[in-house]
User: What shape does this take?
Amino acid sequence: MKMILAIVQPELLPDIKEGLLKAKISKFTVSTAKGHGSEVPVEEVYRGISYELELSNKIRIEIAVNDDFVEPVVDAICEVAKKEIAEGRGKIFISSVEDCIRIRTGERGKEAIG
Assistant: This one.
């Protein structure tokens, strides 16, 4: 079992979601995040005062999968994120999951991930 964590640009989310659903991955968590990568800092003006945004808006996608689904998930995310060649497209992290428990039924391991 693996946990896949992807940090991507917010505008990529609809296409990534579509790609995941096509790959038969329907269980994932999405949350907002802020971060700083290799992007050029953005300068904005608020109430007449100019300042640099040090943290950019990002989307954090977390997907727990059985080992057989790791490559389809990574491929679905990369296919969307690679369409435009630019810095700051995001990162994918893959880590091992020791155990998973479905609270409702008490199932553990591969059966609990679903």
About this structure: The chain has one domain: 2-113. The helical segments are 13-22, 70-81, 110-113.
